[in-house]
Write a structure and sequence with these properties.
By secondary structure, this protein is an alpha/beta fold. It has a single domain, classed as SGNH hydrolase (Rossmann fold), CATH 3.40.50.1110. The protein is built from nine helices and seven strands. It has helices at about 10, 30-35, 40-45, 60-75, 105-110, 115-125, 130-145, 175, 190-210; strands at about 1-5, 50, 80-85, 95, 100, 150-155, 165-170. The strands form two sheets. Strands 2-1-3-6-7 form a five-stranded parallel beta sheet, sandwiched between helices. It has a two-stranded antiparallel ribbon with strand order 4-5. Helix 3 (about 40-45) packs across helix 9 (about 190-210) and helix 4 (about 60-75) packs parallel to helix 7 (about 130-145). The longest helix is centred in the middle third of the chain and has 18 residues, at about 130-145. The N and C termini lie close together (about 10 Å).
Length: about 210
């Protein structure tokens, strides 16, 4: 069995840093970071492999395409997988150029300027919860069609409630249930936070998903 994870920095494992690795500004993923994120911790508890496909500053709009692309182009139909999604802040948006470009990085780091007025309009004027609700509907429908179990929860942001049975802590977020000592200096969960959250997610997953 394999856990395949999608999400933002809370799934990627930002600020989880091996003592012998310097801060990389999200440009590289390390095995230490993967193993200590909630996805890696959950895989350890289930004694299975995992693939962390999360991206820092990712948007729910992008996540739905990433999940669908994985199922259509990477997943082998005889492979037992569980899709794991930690939905992110609904106000985020992304567009696909040669790679995914996330407005969270653009607005926070100033690495790229908006040059396309249509992209600016998309980011500033649409109903952000609409994109998130549509993304969740798409991902759940695709997984149901292929009979792939899905485990999902909200990492950050204000989300609409859902009726999906495998939705952990619906109405809350990972960020909101963690304690102050569970965060690193930059606001991401630290090792203790990921492990604390995983203990609760594991019990939920065992109850709701046959593994």
């Amino acid at each position: 069995m394999k856990l395949v994870g999608f999400g933002c920095s809370f799934t990627y494992g930002s600020e989880l840093q091996s003592p012998d690795v310097s801060w990389d500004r999200h440009r590289e993923n390390t095995r230490y970071r993967e193993q200590h994120s909630w996805l890696g911790c959950l895989a350890t508890r289930f004694n299975c492999v995992f693939d962390n496909l999360a991206q820092p500053a990712n948007s729910n709009y992008a996540i739905q395409y990433q999940v669908t692309d994985y199922i259509n182009n990477t997943w082998k139909t005889d492979e037992q997988i569980i899709i794991c999604v930690a939905w992110t802040e609904p106000a985020r948006f992304s567009w696909l150029d040669t790679i995914w470009v996330h407005n969270g990085f653009i607005s926070n780091e100033g690495e790229t300027k908006f040059t396309n007025s249509h992209k600016e309009w998309l980011v500033s004027s649409v109903d952000h919860n609409y994109w998130t609700d549509a993304a969740k509907l798409n991902v759940n429908a695709v997984c149901k069609y292929h009979n792939i179990p899905i485990l999902q929860f909200n990492a950050i942001g204000k989300h609409s409630t859902t009726t999906y049975p495998n939705y952990f802590l619906d109405g809350a977020t990972m960020q909101s249930v963690l304690h102050p000592e569970h965060f690193a200096s930059g606001g991401h969960p630290n090792e203790l936070g990921h492990e604390w959250f995983t203990k609760r997610l594991y019990l939920f997953a065992k109850e709701r998903i046959i593994v």
